[in-house]
Design goal:
Layout lengths: L1 E10 L5 E4 L10 E13 L8 E9 L5 E10 L7 E10 L3 E7 L4 E11 L3 E3 L5 E3 L10 H37 L1
Antiparallel strand pairs: 1-8, 2-7, 3-6, 3-8, 4-5, 4-7, 9-10
Amino acid sequence: MSKEYLWVGKLDKNTKVVVFNPLEEGETDAIISHSLLVKKVLLGPCKDSQELNVIEIETEGYLDDEIKTTLCCLQATNDKKFDQCSIDLLVTHNEAKFSLVEGSGPVTIFGQHLAEYLEDEIISEDGDEEAEEEEVSPELTGKKRKEKKLLDYQKRLQKWKFLMKKKTMKRKMRMRKWK
């Protein structure tokens, strides 16, 4: 089960760096992964319309390679004091650091924080955990119970991937027969 939350980061002349780090905000054991989908970067209102604002992102990529690159450049004009950039950038399982490397903003970064929960645990709105009907042996407690649930989830995921691969193979075989 997954839930989506609004994430907002604000950069200006006083706050030059904003970090997306969900583990820092209090990790729940039921959460197995976090992702951030950056959707929009908004500049404004600006006093200095000729100032260029450069926003940079720093995160880890595949095999822990450090990625540090410009996310966008925004500049207001004399006619309008706002500028915006639409983005579809997914940062998975890692911390992301957004920096205002040039300009004084204000810049607002909007995104969706996606939290993936263990399938058999439902988190209610007030934060209470309720176990689903599936029973876990009473002798398993605490950490061992969570490990067992995670293993069960991983097995179901592996089985699903296998079935999807098998289905794709059958489809390819049918396509070959038609040709």
